[in-house]
Amino acid sequence: MSYQLENTQRGEKYTTIFSKVTPAQRRNRNARSRWRANCLLGLYLILMILPIYWLINMSLQTNSEILGSMTLWPQNLTFDNYIGIFTNSSWYMGYVNSMLYVAMNMLITICVALPAAYAFSRFTFIGDKHLFFWLLTNLMAPPAVFLLPYFQLYYSVGLFDTHIAVALAHCLFNIPLAIWILEGFMSSVPKEIDETAYIDGYSFPRFFVKVFIPMIRSGIGVTLFFLFMFSWVELLLARTLTATSAQPIGMIMTRTSTASGIDWGTLAAAGVLTIIPGILVVYFVRNHIAKGFALGRT
């Protein structure tokens, strides 16, 4: 009884304290909280954007200015670094080569992963869970593990220094990732839709293309985003499996060192141009990225 009385008195005390807070004090307290949150957010954005800004700043400067005193903006604005990239075939062909094998990898991966993910999401067969887990284990191995077998295999069959060689090598990592993501999106689609389509006379290819794929188009967009990001930034396999004809831009950027030193301005301009495709991809799939991180299980 005394314990209940003590709790009642304590509750009345807290109620009295909170009742003394005026609406103006409450608004001031909320304003201070928002101000602190905005300051932390602003600081975070500055720390994130500062390297990108500094890269752009360096790309618009000469090497002498870059190596001289530190400046927050170009003192002698120049676009010679970008002009040198667009007029030098060894530079701009690096971007072309990278885009070619990335596009080939995305096409091959999505064509293989769509039916495979559908099978995992709709059917039960012997060893399905073990096979699904085995696919994911490919993502746990570093690309360096597969350098030697890929190099020897492609050199033997004449695929060395070709775009398709890099695209197929990236499929080893991208296909399991695509199946994993797409299976989550497909599992969120009720199976009754498949049965209804068959009752309406749809064949499986027609149902899959006309009905099912449009229902998971956001999942396909997010999957393509992840595929692009892996192939675009991966350098080890791309560098090992190419020599001259299919060199990616990342490999060419490592060759800016000359007898007179490193060409910092050209290297910075190449870095800016390398970021642009990723920004464009993020812009087009920005509404689906959050759902993609949840693997469609939202």
From TrEMBL:
It is found in: Cell membrane. The chain crosses the membrane at residues 35-56, 99-120, 132-151, 163-186, 207-233, 264-285. Pfam families: BPD_transp_1 (PF00528). Its main location: membrane. InterPro entries: BP-dep_ABC_trans_perm (IPR050901), MetI-like (IPR000515), MetI-like_sf (IPR035906). Residues 95-285 form the ABC transmembrane type-1 domain. It is a multi-pass membrane protein. Keywords: Cell membrane, Membrane, Transmembrane, Transmembrane helix, Transport. SUPFAM superfamilies: MetI-like. Belongs to the binding-protein-dependent transport system permease family. MalFG subfamily. PANTHER family: ABC TRANSPORTER PERMEASE PROTEIN, MALTOSE TRANSPORT SYSTEM PERMEASE-RELATED. This is Carbohydrate ABC transporter permease. It comes from Halomonas colorata. The lineage of its organism: Bacteria, Pseudomonadati, Pseudomonadota, Gammaproteobacteria, Oceanospirillales.
